Amino acid sequence: SFLHFVSRQFEQDKSVTFLLLFQNNMELRPTGGFPGSYATVRLAKNEPITFEVQDIYVPDGQLQGHVDPPLPIQEAFQQGFWKLRDANWHPDFQESAQRVEWFFTAAGYPEYDGIIGINFTPVQQILHITGPVKIADLNTIVDTNNMYQVLQRTDDTEFFAGSTKKKDTLSAFTTQLMLRLQHLSPSQYLQILSLINQQLQQKNILISVDDSDLHMLT
To answer: Are the C-beta atoms of 122 and 193 separated by less than 8 Å?
Structure first.
């Protein structure tokens, strides 16, 4: 299992770094949704989790040169090029994860131990368990009803080239949510575990790990 993979790395005193794709399933893609943002998550034995959020357009803009799009992408978008933001085009998540990592590597990023795709739906369901979280800088309380609007910031007038507002909002939200997850009751932890298992089965969470002995979750 995925947990077995992580624990085996810890037994060898290795850290693991995952790419977490936040997929907006309100804008459908073959693996779930449009990956507008992502996080780099590092896990190490007896160390706190490090979690860094970024906009997908940052690495997208660092890719040099031209990549010809596969025919289905060209037919869908008519744009004549292929970008990281459209790399999760194969319904087999293992295939899409390989394309995503290729784009990151081509943009100068290090390789990851695995890639996880997560739709908005399971995050929304987690808020049902944890309760609302507050983003102090925005003086905003995020709950299941307004999560999509707050995190997507769909008002384009708030953005401009070089703006970090979307990244900052998502980063503040995930930080507060992780703090909330650290202080759950035992029954809430069980609910979270049950929810994750359910969302894995429903393909709202997809995992691909870089391990020849472990083939997971398409």
So the answer is: no
What 3-state DSSP class applies to 20?
strand
Q: In what order do the strands lie in the sheet with 50-55?
A: 50-55, 34-43, 16-24, 114-119, 205-209
Q: H helices of the chain, where?
A: 2-11, 57-62, 71-77, 93-106, 120-130, 147-152, 165-181, 186-201
Structure tokens at 165: 């507002």
3-state DSSP assignment of residue 70: coil
> Stretch 1-30: mean pLDDT, rounded?
82
| Residues 83-140 pLDDT 10s | 999 999 999 999 999 999 999 999 999 999 999 999 999 999 999 999 999 988 778 8
Amino acid at site 140: T
* Cβ neighbours for 14, distance < 8 A, ≥ 6 positions apart: none
Predicted model pTM: 0.84
User: Residue 146: how many CA atoms within 13 Å on its side-chain side?
Assistant: 12
